[in-house]
């Protein structure tokens, strides 16, 4: 098991290098001068500008910039943004915001997705099943930007049930609406996956065997159907994280939540290559770690992948 | 093999009819099927795929998917209690405990994420209320009984870690764990190669000989019937076309379908000659011929066969030997004449028409 984990980590290193390099190159290639943009319409003294450029190594060749940035990232010297904010401080403030949002939306997604998926799978072609298929089809068909703004307008502006934006109302009030928007999107995929998997498992031969053993329906469900039906769902757990982070970029920006997603969005706008790479690396590392955990968990649940 | 004229049947299926609901009209998969099973007896239900042999036993055990399946009529009495009328809860005390089942494809019929030990132990835990440790001990004993080497280690293994033959032994261990009165084996050896098949059948016969357990063996393989059955029920298109003692049915088949099956079996004597086959294919449930379902493939068919649906009638009443076995077949031919070996039983009329 330990060897397996080490191998997985070793395999993640080259991927990490490619990802960070690619992201940094993309930001580097963006048009416009980030320092010049800081001053807006106002005149910028050339000496100040030169000092700023030197501070951020902007006049160095691309490779040197990349290597310096990587050194700073891994030694924990994150430095400041172009505007002067301490990046380490920013991360400390923003990580909890994104974590709360992610956990709350995960909660919505998994609660609804599993509940509806399992129920619909059991009562195939029943009313809940048909509604689930229709609702998830709608959710998946509507672009997330549309649903996000619609939710904000309906529940925030019109009905005034929940705050329109910001985190002034604290947790969980301020987070409910954005978490629900992300959660509902994830729920659509998860609900369908769970339903299909349950439908397949219910008709499996070993369920018939379990019935022929005279087991109660409850025992058949918990001991025989669910452990098999939820195997593909576990894999989804890891893949889902990528979608969660992508969702956070849009949602945090729209709902003005000062989390990592919003930070990333702003940093891209400001051409803050360093910050973008730090955030991407953070997302990448957590993605690798969660998928590693999922793989380990999968091995625990499914004996067939253990060998 | 066993004499059972005086004992009561342990399981008696009467007039069982099962339909499948479809978008158009319901299909009759099992049509008025009856058979009796006596303690210690091995009853083979012989038929091609789609003849309704599996559906009938699944309906009896209450594990048929309903819907689309539907039991239209009939009864299945275990020790005088009708399994089909029983509430689910009461039936679970019998099916799984006194009546158990073995299925064809052991890889898909065993839960892939549970160790075989846990799956065998489950029966002891649910039906006997044994504790975890004791149930596991019993599971190990069962694995040893079906001759799985190193049962103490193997009990922790999962189904995919066993070979096909070993896996079928595990199925057998699971089904025999509670020392049942009736074992329903649904094509238990079909997925195995011939040598392993023989080993499994031998093992089954040996374990059966130690108890009074009765076995319902569903098969399409005449050779299996020849090897292990006491009594044979031949099914065609959902109906019983012939039933009787194995030796009698196999030596003097009454129904032309049984005769066709026997003729199409390869043997050493037939070496070098072309093997006979039954012309045509079994009818689909959506288009079962009128009258006798077999008439379209029958060499002896005559006009009335398309009009009259033959009922099972007792045959061989003339000779005391066959009458004792309660032999019957569903055919319009002169069956007494056929089984006595005096002729094909074909009617004069049909000869005139040919």
Automatic annotation (TrEMBL), chain A:
Its main location: membrane. GO terms for cellular component: plasma membrane. InterPro entries: BPD_transp_1_N, MetI-like, MetI-like_sf. It is a multi-pass membrane protein. One of its GO terms (biological process) is transmembrane transport. It is found in: Cell membrane. The chain crosses the membrane at residues 9-30, 101-119, 131-155, 175-193, 229-255, 275-301. Residues 95-294 form the ABC transmembrane type-1 domain. Keywords: Cell membrane, Membrane, Transmembrane, Transmembrane helix, Transport. Belongs to the binding-protein-dependent transport system permease family. This is Dipeptide-transport integral membrane protein ABC transporter DppB. It comes from Microlunatus endophyticus.
From TrEMBL, chain B:
Residues 11-262 form the ABC transporter domain. Its main location: membrane. One of its GO terms (molecular function) is ATP binding. It is a peripheral membrane protein. Keywords: ATP-binding, Cell membrane, Membrane, Nucleotide-binding, Transport. It is found in: Cell membrane. GO terms for cellular component: plasma membrane. InterPro entries: AAA+_ATPase, ABC_Ni/Peptide_Import, ABC_transporter-like_ATP-bd, ABC_transporter-like_CS, Oligopep_ABC_C, P-loop_NTPase. GO terms for biological process: peptide transport. NCBIfam families: oligo_HPY. Belongs to the ABC transporter superfamily. This is ABC transporter ATP-binding protein. It comes from Microlunatus endophyticus. The lineage of its organism: Bacteria, Bacillati, Actinomycetota, Actinomycetes, Propionibacteriales.
